[in-house]
Fold this protein.
Amino acid sequence: MSSLILDAEALYSELLRGMRLLLASYDQPPRLVGVASGGAWLVQRLQKDLGLAEEVGILSSSMHRDDFSQRGLASSGKTLLPFDVNGAHLIVVDDVLYTGRTLRAVLNELFDYGRPASVKLVALVDRGGRELPVQPDLAVARVTLPASQTLELARAEDGQFSFQVQDR
């Protein structure tokens, strides 16, 4: 077990502040899309806390993963996009950005639904270790962990966030 301690609620507060600034830079409000599952939790809470009336979307990486043969479908929820992505400005929200492979799969999934006007990436935590050329437009925290450890966002029944660091 690692001794890394991240206050997920404090980071979420910073994410909320950063999202307010990012949203203000658009002429028309973009649509929020969360990466299943942690990113989906984040956009659901952001929708409420930002007072957004528009429904948020959820993107699954399951069908486009390059390790599908090992992980199968059980690793992610299903995609739900309750709006037309064609011509839309989207902000994709992820909890932890690591190698970039999940995000690549999510973008492939997104483009199965249409062609957005633009896509920005927001991450609660960027843990480095990129294997693909993917960078967030906004990352609240940057941490370094050995490849032998995982960092996962957890959500309690009351909606509060926390992080779990585990050895693989």
Summary: The two ends are 10 Å apart (CA to CA). The chain is about 25% helix and 25% strand. The mean pLDDT is 92. The beta strands are 31-35, 57-59, 89-97, 118-126, 138-142, 149-155, 161-167.
